[in-house]
Specification:
homodimer, about 375 residues, alpha/beta, 2 domains, eight-stranded parallel β-barrel, three-stranded antiparallel sheet, flavoprotein (chains A, B), monooxygenase (chains A, B), nitronate monooxygenase activity (chains A, B), FMN (chains A, B), oxidoreductase (chains A, B)
Chain lengths: ~375, ~375
């Protein structure tokens, strides 16, 4: 494999693995893809530890870091601390969650020490840590990367990737100077827009090409090498994946959730604002059903909704781990529609090798389809 | 091009064009693809006239017919006539529609003579007409084809295609004995499920392969040859398209709607029950916005909702044609997310030629990506 981005980053396969788990980063990069560590849940000190561990284990292979730096969020510009933000969560919302947990046999209260997913200055501090390590790529998962990210990355000569869910956003990103655009379809786990991968990728490729020579990666529902081949046919230079790593041996996904993922079909996800305050796709569960019900309160803006949902769901995972049925019904995590094809636990390296093999088969299949094509093209026959 | 289905049907390019317009059927089939006439809005007599015209103009090229024969519908098995069905539409729904039209400056009433989209015995009669013509294919757009369709088609040696929006439905169809499965993603115009094309196609291909050697076509958002190449990479043998023909020179789409399609982005569609009673994707407009609003009545079951919405929207088209702004705001028609890439009016033949050319480019691009691949596969390098 050698799309230009492979040569640019020194990777063998244009397979980008977004993960919160350092072991997956190392395994993927060593197997020929590129691991990208999601930094959102780390403090700057924790991120430094994670990246130091990666540097010690990755054998010099390239890897990236993904920072969550949205353009707007509740409390922005005010340096509001977590406790103040928590105090803004309405009593109605707190009561809805504690009732929901109680209905599922969970009477103990979640701890209330979760950090907000975004806060003033956090992105800058995380980025400063990341740039102190030999990263090959920095990404922003939400919106146009803030100026400081683009500026610092340019200074360090490190490419900036940005995720988009709409053609119009891709145009904005390309003009803002990002180096890699990830066109993420509606079927993706985590934050996502409305347009499907099959439609979004070609339209983003075309729109971006009019502005600059910026590689586009396809994301959304991609868990196989066939889909990587399809993405390249659509004009992408590679694929950005997330869900598929959640059921690897290395991942730290809660075991009850892994079991649910392996059993889930592609119709068992839901796109909802009820986890972070912005639309994100996750496994359907008693938790998401409750938030979709007519008597549920409206989700709060980011990061308030996360300050409400994350501690509760983390607590649910702990209780589910003890085998309690109610907690297992509630348990959920972000995942894309590709979950329907995630049916076994493999090592992250084996997932990379499977991608490579399935990709090669798909290319062969496509070539076979054109093998006895007429010289000029099918339609020409009857022109 | 020569996927097995091309050889089976005697076509040059595995491009299936679903359309209600006989001119598009003829143009596509003559250009190397295969036109499939949607019979849903014709009486048996009208269908016979359409097919006779096609036979006279298509120069012996293959074409197909699509019958809408859902497994269940309101009034099924009771031979209820259209007037009786119409009488079941609640006053609240009628008032909602007339208020909506009035708010948009339309005071004249739509005519109330629309036939129901489905009715007892209609499928059989349409099919009988179709089989009296030299059709190469018969399709059912909704659910498992009824027994009579499978039986009569087998007798005549004509392959039966069926559209599915979920893997589980594909399995049911394969077991029921259909010959071609169309895996239609959520981004498709018209009736569609929740799973995207990028995810649905590979999982349907895998599931069907375990049952029988049945070709799968990809559908949903497909308006370019690149997407046809992607579909073949995913394991499909070709593509089933609909939206892309609505802006061809031959199509009978209402001119105001064509103008809206050309201007629309991929985010301007909505999946709603408010047109037919089952989920279908259409252009977002003042009409769909109104039905999505909290004060809208719940959509009625099929075919009642269509008996309410079709005459109203047909009337809207007529008034929009006179240039009235309110009617133009309401105007809508079924279309998929691919509408964002439908930016100019072309002849149907040119669309076929564009598909062929874009397909060839995409295959070349995919091959270039593997050109200097390591012999065994990328991941093997570091195994």
């Amino acid at each position: 494999m050698a799309t230009p981005i492979c040569r640019q980053l020194g990777i063998d396969l244009p397979l980008f693995a977004f993960t919160h788990c350092r072991d997956v980063v190392v395994a993927v990069s060593k197997a020929g893809g590129i691991g990208v560590l999601g930094a959102a849940k780390f403090s700057p000190e924790e991120l430094d530890q994670e990246l130091t561990w990666i540097d010690e284990h990755i054998g010099g292979r390239p890897y990236g870091v993904d920072i969550l730096a949205p353009a707007t969020f509740e409390g922005q510009g005010t340096h509001t601390d977590a406790d103040e933000l928590r105090a803004r969560i309405p009593q109605q919302h707190r009561a809805f969650v504690s009732d929901l947990l109680a209905e599922h046999g969970i009477s103990s209260a979640p701890s209330d020490t979760t950090r907000p997913l975004v806060e003033d200055g956090l992105g800058e501090r995380l980025l400063e840590v990341a740039f102190a390590h030999p990263i090959a790529l920095v990404a922003n998962a939400l919106g146009v990367p803030p100026d400081y990210m683009l500026r610092e990355a340019k200074k360090s000569g490190i490419p900036v990737a940005a995720l988009v869910g709409a053609k119009e956003h891709a145009i904005k990103q390309a003009r803002a100077g990002v180096d890699i655009i990830v066109a993420q379809g509606s079927e993706a786990g985590g934050h996502c827009g409305e347009v499907s991968t099959m439609v979004l990728v070609p339209e983003v490729v075309d729109a971006v090409a009019e502005i600059a020579d910026i590689p586009v990666l396809a994301a959304g529902g991609i868990v196989t090498g066939r889909q990587m081949a399809a993405s390249i046919a659509l004009g992408a230079q590679g694929v950005w994946t997330g869900s598929v790593w959640l059921t690897t041996e290395e991942a730290e996904t809660a075991p009850a959730t892994v079991a649910k993922f392996l059993a889930a079909t592609s119709r068992d996800t839901v796109r909802s604002k009820a986890r972070t305050g912005k639309y994100s796709r996750q496994l359907r569960s008693a938790w998401t059903d409750a938030w979709e019900s007519p008597n549920a309160p409206s989700p709060l803006p980011m990061p308030l909704q996360g300050l409400l949902s994350e501690p509760a769901l983390r607590h649910v995972d702990v209780v589910a781990e003890r085998g309690e049925a109610g907690a297992r019904e509630l348990a959920t995590y972000w995942v894309g529609q590709g979950v329907g094809m995630m049916t076994k636990v493999s090592s992250a390296a084996d997932v990379v090798y499977d991608f490579a093999e399935d990709f090669a088969d798909a290319v062969e299949r496509t070539n076979a389809a054109v093998a006895d094509e007429q010289p000029v093209g099918a339609g020409e026959l009857n022109r």
